[in-house]
Structures are given as C-alpha cells and as structure tokens.
Amino acid sequence: MSDFGRPPDSPDFEPSIPADPFGAPAGRAAVLCGVGGWVPPRVVTNEELASRLDTTDEWITTRTGIQRRHAVEPGQATSDLAVEAGRRALRSAGGPAPDTVLLATTTPDRPCPATAPLIATRLGLREAAAFDVSAVCTGLIYALATAAGLIATGVSRRVLVIGADVYSSIVDPDDRTNAIIFGDGAGAVVLRAGNPDEPGALDHFDLGSDGASEELIMVAAGGSRQWAESRPPTRGEQHFAMRGKEVYRHAVTRIAASARATLAAAGWKPGDVDYFVPHQANVRILHSVADDLGIERSRCASHLVDVGNTGAASIPLALAHAHTEGALKPGHRVVLTGFGGGLTWGSCVLRWPDIGQGEDPR
Ligand code: UT7
C-alpha cells in the first residue's frame, strides 16, 4: 500500500523511502565556485522613458534609485541572456562540466517546455538534468536551495544555477509604474560538491511563501485559471501587474525577517556581514532593510542603479558585478536574500570563495 495520504503521525506509518536514499556522505555541501552575469547591450535611460511616458528622471531616481536599465533587442529571449551568463559562470569556475542546470525565471522562452534543457544543450552540457524553478524574484534563492539539496543527496555533483528574466516580454511598455522599474538580464553561479566548512559553501537557508497575497504580483492570463474562466483575457491581464505600495510594505518586512532568521541560524551578527545582497527591487527598500538589520548601507549591494529590477537575475547579477568590481573579497561573509511574487522569500549565507577575476556583466 502506498504511504501517500496517510498522516505521518499515524501509528502504522512507515516511510517507504529510507532516511538516506542515496547513501550521500554526511556533510556534502554545495560550494559556489564560479559566477557570471550578462545584460543585453541596449541601455534605456530614465530620460528615454520620460520622453514617452508621463514620468521624470527625478521621480524615478528619488522613488526607486534606478538610473538606467538594459533591454533586449527584437529576437532576444530569456535563454539567449541565460546562455551568455551561464558561459561566463562556467569560464569563471573552470573544472568539469556541470551535470545539472537550473533556470530561475518568470519569463521562460515558452510556457512549455522548460527553458533549462535548451540552455544546457546550447552550452554543450549534453544530457544534463535541466529544469526551471518558478518563484518569481526569489527564484534564484529557491534554485540554490534545490541545487544544494541535489548535491547533498548525491543526485548532482556540479550544478549551473542561472537566474534570467526578460521583463520586457511581460511589462506593458505604457505602464509607467512598472516600465520604469524592470530591466532585462541574467546572472549565474556554478555550485560543486564540497565541505560545509570551506569558503563558498551555501548554508542556513530560510525559505517561505504566502499564497494569500498572490494577487499583489501577477500576470493573470496565460495559465489554466484563465482557461478555466472560459473568457478571453483583457489587455491588462496579459501584462505584469503589481500593487507596488503593498508589495513595498511586505518587502521591507519579509526581507528583514528572512535575513535575520538566516543570520541567527549562522550565528552571525549584523556587524559580521561584509556584503549583503538583497533582491534589487528599490533602493529605498534596500536602505530601509539594511538600517533595520544594522548593516551599513555601504555593505549593501545596489547594482539596481545601473540595471533596474532584473527579477530572478538580480542576485547573481549583483554578485557578478561586485565580484568584478572587487567589492567581494575571498573570506567575506555574504548574505543573500530574495523576495518576490507568490509571495515568496528566502535567504542563505556563504563566505566568498577565491574564484579569480570575473568579467564585467555589461
Ligand atoms: O521585484 C518584486 C518586488 N517588487 C518590489 O519590491 C517593488 C515594491 N514597490 C515599489 O518599489 C514602489 O511602490 C514603486 C516604485 C512601484 C512605486 O513607488 P511609490 O513611492 O510606492 O509610488 P506610488 O505607487 O504610491 O505612487 C505615488 C504617485 C501616484 O500618484 P498620486 O496617486 O499620488 O497622484 C502614482 O500615480 O506617483 C505616481 N506614479 C508616478 N509618477 C511619475 C507612479 N508611477 C509613476 C512614475 N512617474 N513612473
């Protein structure tokens, strides 16, 4: 008889899966050993947006901190950005080819199939396990946690984790609230099997969600819910919609709480943190969270000034940028925290490894 449907606390419950199904050696950690990022060359400045939308450079800069973002050219899709970022991360890591590719994205090339297998093939990673992870702007943290689990159980030995999004494909270009925030981009890291006490080991994941707030960030059309409602979608339902003010309030609370939980689990005090990389949503959110946690603003990544909110790409892009600029040094204590639609949130920590010089994502 299957164990499905039987509560785990029933007296005759015996899990059908042994506690350690893969015989994984204890202490096998996912260790970051490569990083890379790529943004499409076309820059969209605040002035350019102000020339066609009812907005100003001053409004965008003071309300978001964003000065410019990058946008795809016609013909470029998420996998094109992801392949570039993945290639750079693989170059940075060197060593054997990954056996697994995960793509965190909200804008896959197509609703079906997943985009990760195509990326793996284009990178020459033939027959690698490959799938997409959908957790909106927290996608990268969820994908890292998934990769860490695959490595810990011995299913995977080396994983390429990519966060890539082309928000241009879902944001209404005439929506002044969202068009000014989002940019297109991709970032990637390579994880290998290693020991929990070595630099680069990811640890102390904190993950969470709140589906009661799903309507705060949404593309309403295009899924089975719209099909079930048996009516054609409106123009608005086909585009990305966000209740910005409410999301803002959740973001400051959730990012701080998740980062705090991870710090507590790691036994780190805020003053121990050398580099804090929250999801790059809005510089006011970043500063407010840093202040709340007691982390100096100068230690908080703010790559969004140049690239905007790049969704699932924002954390690895910020890492690639900071690594190239020399802001991240071997041994630095780093906290990663994501927040996004779902709602979802998540954090983890690592000590920055010695992975040599990176390439500028631009
Ligand atoms: O990545 C997923 C997570 N996302 C986030 O964390 C985003 C969180 N939210 C935000 O970053 C901010 O809420 C926004 C940047 C989206 C908006 O900033 P805000 O300070 O919350 O502005 P608001 O929505 O309260 O709007 C204030 C005013 C409104 O006008 P009224 O009603 O006061 O007359 C808006 O219509 O600003 C207006 N407005 C604009 N004005 C000029 C909205 N967008 C613009 C614009 N230019 N682009």
TrEMBL record:
InterPro entries: ACP_syn_III_C, ACP_syn_III_N, FabH, Thiolase-like. The active site is at C137, H279, N309. Keywords: Acyltransferase, Cytoplasm, Fatty acid biosynthesis, Fatty acid metabolism, Lipid biosynthesis, Lipid metabolism, Multifunctional enzyme, Transferase. Residues 131-211 form the Beta-ketoacyl-[acyl-carrier-protein] synthase III N-terminal domain. GO terms for biological process: fatty acid biosynthetic process; secondary metabolite biosynthetic process. GO terms for molecular function: 3-oxoacyl-[acyl-carrier-protein] synthase activity; beta-ketoacyl-acyl-carrier-protein synthase III activity. It catalyses: malonyl-[ACP] + acetyl-CoA + H(+) = 3-oxobutanoyl-[ACP] + CO2 + CoA. Residues 263-352 form the Beta-ketoacyl-[acyl-carrier-protein] synthase III C-terminal domain. It comes from the Bacteria. Gene3D superfamilies: 3.40.47.10. CDD domains: KAS_III. Pathway: Lipid metabolism; fatty acid biosynthesis. Residues 1-21 are annotated as: Disordered. GO terms for cellular component: cytoplasm. Residues 280-284 are annotated as: ACP-binding. It is found in: Cytoplasm. Its EC number is 2.3.1.180. The keyword Metal-binding does not apply. Catalyzes the condensation reaction of fatty acid synthesis by the addition to an acyl acceptor of two carbons from malonyl-ACP. Catalyzes the first condensation reaction which initiates fatty acid synthesis and may therefore play a role in governing the total rate of fatty acid production. Possesses both acetoacetyl-ACP synthase and acetyl transacylase activities. Its substrate specificity determines the biosynthesis of branched-chain and/or straight-chain of fatty acids. The last Arg residue of the ACP-binding site is essential for the weak association between ACP/AcpP and FabH. Homodimer. This is Beta-ketoacyl-[acyl-carrier-protein] synthase III. It comes from Streptomyces benahoarensis.
